[in-house]
Design goal:
- The chain is an alpha+beta fold.
- Among the domains are: about 230 residues, Neuraminidase, CATH 2.120.10; about 130 residues, Sandwich (Immunoglobulin-like), CATH 2.60.40.10; about 45 residues.
- Helix content is about 25%, strand content about 25%.
- It contains nine helices and 31 strands.
- The strands form eleven sheets. Strands 5, 6, 7, 8 and 9 form a five-stranded antiparallel beta sheet that branches.
- A hairpin with a 7-residue loop joins strand 23 and strand 24.
- The relative contact order is 0.07.
- The N terminus and C terminus are likely disordered.
Length: about 650
């Protein structure tokens, strides 16, 4: 094939404006030696297309056609061609259901016993106008390097297709996980581009009424993303009654609907998480519940690790404090300035100012729980409980829009790898995503018995990498004891009360698929709980009783011994004074009075003895000194006496005549 007199393969790779697109088909057995199959397959020369094999046929889809030296000739295609041998090709679709594009990813999932139909998935790619790269204005500086500016539209949608039975019986391409698709699984998911009607659960607590989607469509609001970004003018138009009209407001709860849409956007924001769990990581407890005013409260606690959390689990609802711009008490001019700033940025829904203030200057209003009007427009005084709806909505995870993504099949799963999401070099990605359309299922491995004090639950999922959420209801009082709480594969509830309870657990896989169905005995357990006897309290009470009895017994023995000693002492005194009475022949003695006097005398003696102990050391010293003096005197006397005795012994006695 020649282009402007230049044979294919002889172009020089220097400068621009030289490349053309080809349509020849080659074949090889080993990838080293190639044989030309055909130079005229019937479809136009192109690039950025994809060729794959499915149902024993070659298929070629999409791509970019034209040549680079003429911008007007380049365009994107969305045709589908098939061939049994690569030589003869037939056009199965002139225009497929997906937008014309190039540089997309394709992966084929062959039929299995479980799914006896071959399927192909086409994902990502780019499309749009192509600028002339010969003009300097169509280049930009990317870190010192000139790169062509390509205002392309990048995609992240996926389309599913089945091989046709015959040339004239071609099934349409179905957008994967789209609410308009016929498969039931698609209705489980919501994302930013879902229609507003997807926020309805068809339950009494719905915030969006059946007629609201059509009213919003009249204002150009079609998707969840549109509703989340609705501006002040449209909010007031839908929320307020038209001036001079008796008709009610079109959508009085438009602010609650906007708040729900923002919460969905936040919940469905994809975050990178590590799904490899350890035992310590499974101890994270995440609690979501509502207070008496309906405001959601989120708390987290962990026994050993705080790094692993289910993504989006703490985003069920925005904190109301984020929507209230508080104004601390300052001087009047500062308060007015803050009020003016808040009014200027007011979106028609946020609560500004302080409750109970008529405005920032005047005295308090009659209603102590009112927010002041903003330029005559009443503020929202309270919020509906959007978290009840939000917890029932399931997000569809998807990568950011990109082209040049590579698709492959591995172990039965469709993988999309890498890609480019912009013109700059930094926009290349090395992310790996896989398609998971199967909802996980949880099965109990251990549950407490009926009318028993057991409070431990164990369960497992049929997919790896799942985390779990459990919910507990008190059926006796028909109330929620614990809202959906994240946990590992074991839950111990040590605060259960007497009565009927219902425990539900659901699994969430890494693709954010949430288990929907609950079956008694599999992932739902209803039982009558009987709290365990307080063994510690009983043992403590018994030990305390015995200790009390022992104390009473010991006190009784002490008093009885004391009384016996007193009786014995009285008897001795009686005997003593009877003898004294007999000798003196006095009248009988009043023994009780005498005993009392004896006790008083004993007390006085004890006090005197205690007082004498203070100068005991001085007396002891004086006594020792006296003893020493006496000893010295005794020794001296003894020596003198011995001397005199000796003198008497040796003095000769005079004789008498």
């Amino acid at each position: 094939m020649t282009v402007d007199g230049v044979r294919s393969g002889d172009e020089n790779a220097c400068g621009g404006g030289y490349r053309g697109y080809l349509n020849d088909v080659w074949r090889s057995k080993d990838g080293s030696l190639w044989n030309l199959v055909t130079q005229d397959p019937g479809w136009r020369g192109r690039g950025e297309h994809k060729v794959f094999v499915m149902a024993d046929l070659f298929w070629m889809v999409g791509g970019r056609i034209g040549h680079s030296w003429s911008v007007k000739s380049e365009s994107f295609m969305n045709d589908v061609w098939g061939s049994p041998d690569g030589i003869s090709w037939a056009k199965y679709q002139e225009h497929a259901e997906w937008e014309p594009r190039g540089a997309f990813g394709v992966a084929v999932k062959p039929k299995t016993k479980r799914d006896p139909i071959d399927r192909v998935y086409l994902c990502g790619g780019h499309s749009g106008p192509i600028l002339d790269t010969n003009l300097e204005e169509n280049f930009f500086d990317d870190g010192g390097e000139n790169r062509p500016r390509t205002p392309l539209t990048y995609h992240n949608d996926c389309w599913e297709w089945q091989p046709p039975i015959a040339l004239g019986q071609v099934d349409p391409w179905l957008r994967d996980f789209n609410e308009s698709a016929p498969e039931a699984s698609s209705y489980r998911y919501v994302f930013e581009n879902s229609g507003v009607e997807r926020l309805r659960l068809v339950v009494p607590m719905d915030i969006i009424r059946p007629q609201d989607p059509s009213i919003l469509a009249e204002e150009g609001i079609y998707t969840v993303k549109d509703l989340a970004s609705i501006g002040r003018d449209k909010v007031l138009k839908l929320r307020l009654t038209p001036a001079g009209s008796t008709n009610p407001a079109k959508i009085p709860h438009i602010c609650d609907q906007k708040r729900l849409a923002i919460a969905v956007m936040d919940k469905c924001r994809v975050q990178e998480e590590d799904w490899l769990k350890t035992e310590s990581q499974q101890q994270i407890i995440h609690e979501v519940y509502a207070d008496v005013d309906g405001n959601e409260i989120v708390s987290e606690r962990s026994e050993a690790y705080t790094g692993w959390l289910y993504p989006n689990e703490n985003r069920f609802q925005q904190d109301e404090s984020e929507n209230v711009k508080t104004m601390p008490e300052t001087d009047l001019s500062a308060k007015i300035e803050r009020w003016d700033e808040a009014v200027e940025s007011w979106d028609g829904c946020s609560q500004i100012g302080e409750r109970g203030k008529l405005d920032m200057v005047n005295s308090p209003s009659e209603g102590p729980d009112k927010y002041a009007d903003v330029e005559g427009i009443p503020q929202i005084q309270g919020w509906m409980q959007t978290w009840r709806i939000l917890e029932e909505l399931q997000c569809r995870n998807i990568w950011s829009p990109r082209s040049h993504v590579h698709g492959t099949l591995f172990q039965g799963d469709i993988f999309m790898i890498g890609g480019r999401s912009g013109d700059a070099a930094r926009n290349f990605s090395n992310e790996v995503w896989y398609r998971d359309a199967e909802l996980p299922q949880t099965t109990f491995t251990n549950v407490p018995g009926d009318r028993s004090p057991d409070n431990s639950f164990s369960f497992s999922a049929d997919e790896e990498g799942c985390i779990f959420q459990w919910r507990l209801n008190d059926l006796s009082e028909n109330r929620v004891e614990k809202n959906w709480t994240t946990s590992g594969e074991t839950v111990n509830i040590d605060w259960l009360e007497l009565g009927f309870h219902r425990f539900r657990v659901r699994a969430i896989d890494p693709a954010n698929n949430v288990e929907e169905d609950f079956e008694e005995g599999r992932n739902q357990h209803t039982w009558y709980h009987t709290p365990a006897l307080p063994v510690g309290l009983i043992v403590g009470c018994v030990l305390g009783f015995f200790a009390f009895c022992a104390g009473v017994y010991l006190e009784f023995r002490r008093r009885r011994r004391k009384a016996a000693m007193e009786r014995y002492a009285v008897k001795r005194m009686r005997r003593k004074f009877r003898g004294a009475q007999g000798r003196t022949k006095e009248k009988e003695v009043d023994w009780k009075k005498y005993g009392k006097q004896a006790k008083d005398a004993a007390k006085k003696a004890h006090k005197k003895k205690k007082a004498g102990a203070v100068d005991g050391s001085a007396k002891t010293k004086s006594k020792h000194k006296h003893k020493h003096k006496h000893k010295h005197h005794h020794e001296h006397g003894e020596s003198h006496h011995a001397k005199k005795k000796k003198q008497r012994k040796f003095t000769p006695r005079s004789s008498t005549s």
